[in-house]
Design a protein that fits this description.
Elements (H helix, E strand, L loop, with lengths): L4 H44 L4 E11 L1 H5 L15 H5 L1 H7 L6 E8 L2 H7 L8 H12 L3 E5 L2 H4 L12 H32 L4 H13 L5 H12 L9 H25 L3 H9 L4 H29 L3 H5 L20 H9 L4 H32 L4
Antiparallel strand pairs: 1-2, 1-3
Helix pairs in contact: 1-16, 8-11, 8-13, 8-15, 10-11, 11-13, 12-13, 13-16, 15-16
Length: 388
């Protein structure tokens, strides 16, 4: 059947229209995704940046004998509602640690109550009109201002929002990731090397490979149930500790490391292996001295991405109890601890307006760390990647 020039031209026009339509839909999807990301980051920045500042007021603190017994008496009755109760509770311990404070009266910048902090930031607060006027007077005199909230990075959790910080969760996250890396990385890499370089191609290895791929796709909360059943109930690992959290996350990270390591090993050309065999090297010597060093950038990239994924997990850690209230910084792998995603989850459930800032601020810190880890993985791959 012959087609005229007009028929062929009409078909080409239809194809071009479909191509333009598909291209427009793709560009629209990309634009929508970019718009969502801009909205998400803008919302997080607007809500989270205020968490990095904290209200402080300049008051006269009377370190009297009465204040050592009744901390509330250290400041005047008029200014007392504006001062954080957490700061007042520390006055007796400060007097014990520094006897020179006994009997003195000093002008100090002290932590303000969370309601004062919200008022100075322009948010709704529960301050009375009288206290609002007093805060305005202090601000006009330069005795009330917002300062960088260093406590957010140096203190643990607290029921008082002005005292709550992310330090204990950050330390717990580091300890948990150390356990995850120490357990998952060597086991995952050696498993991948065996399956890719040494294992025979039979039904057994094929079944193992299928199960590894399936384990990478199952819901993460199931790993939490597995960690609870095995590590806590069977082996008696301390609940809520970085040790049990790291072991649980190691189970979840293993499939990712195995798959990425096998991909990196496959990227090494067979000519490298053949050259090693040609000069009399054993299979293990070829893998150890030639294949593994060339595949190491891809292996490290996969390990970093796996750790970044584990760092953002909350569901498996909830099952093993790592959402506890932890005001103190953990000092060992067996102490009770929490992690940053769990800390953010806890703050999100608090009713106070100030905890909304803490939640968004914690998300910004977590996002910054995750972006840094993923950027490091990309840089490592670009820097050490070998193209054949």
């Amino acid at each position: 059947m012959t087609h005229s020039f007009d028929d062929i031209s009409a078909q080409l026009r239809r194809r071009h229209r479909k191509t333009r339509w598909l291209k427009g839909m793709s560009m629209g999807a990309l634009g929508l995704a970019a718009l969502f990301l801009v909205f998400f980051f803008t919302d997080m920045l607007l809500k989270g940046l205020p968490a990095f500042s904290q209200a402080q007021i300049n008051v006269e603190v009377d370190y009297s004998e009465q204040a050592s017994q009744m901390p509330m008496a250290a400041v005047s009755e008029e200014i007392r509602p504006l001062v954080s109760r957490g700061y007042l509770r520390l006055i007796p311990s400060r007097m014990r640690d520094n006897p020179g404070l006994q009997g003195s009266t000093r002008s100090e910048w002290v932590l303000a109550d969370s309601q004062v902090d919200q008022y100075l930031k322009g948010h709704r607060s529960k301050l009375s009109e009288r206290n609002k006027a007093l805060v305005d007077q202090l601000r006009a005199e330069g005795r009330a201002e917002l300062r960088f909230n260093i406590r957010f990075f140096t203190s643990g959790d607290s029921k008082m929002p002005e005292l709550a910080g992310i330090a204990s969760a950050a330390v717990g996250t580091v300890l948990t990731l150390i356990v995850t890396l120490v357990v998952a990385f060597p086991i995952g890499v050696m498993t991948a090397i065996y399956l890719e370089e040494f294992a025979p191609d039979n039904r057994m290895t094929q079944l193992v490979e299928i199960n590894i791929n399936n384990l990478a796709a199952i819901p993460s909360i199931l790993y939490g149930l597995l960690g609870l059943a095995i590590f806590i109930n069977v082996f008696g690992v301390p609940r809520s500790s970085p040790l049990v959290g790291g072991l649980t996350l190691a189970l979840m990270t293993l499939p990712v490391i195995i798959i990425s390591t096998r991909t990196a090993l496959r990227s090494v050309p067979d000519s490298i292996r053949h050259a090693g065999f040609g000069v009399g090297c054993s299979r293990w010597q070829v893998v150890r001295d030639h294949v593994l060093p060339l595949a190491m950038p891809g292996i490290m990239t996969g390990a970093i991405i796996g750790l970044a994924q584990a760092m953002g997990e909350t569901a498996p850690l909830i099952i093993i109890g790592m959402v506890a209230f932890i005001p103190d910084i953990s000092s060992s792998f067996t102490d009770a601890a929490t992690v940053m995603p769990a800390q953010i989850f806890t703050w999100a459930g608090e009713p106070g307006r100030a905890f909304i800032e803490k939640t968004s601020g914690g998300i910004l810190v977590l996002l910054a760390i995750l972006i840094t880890m993923n950027t490091t993985a990309v840089v490592l791959r670009k820097r050490f990647e070998r193209r054949w």
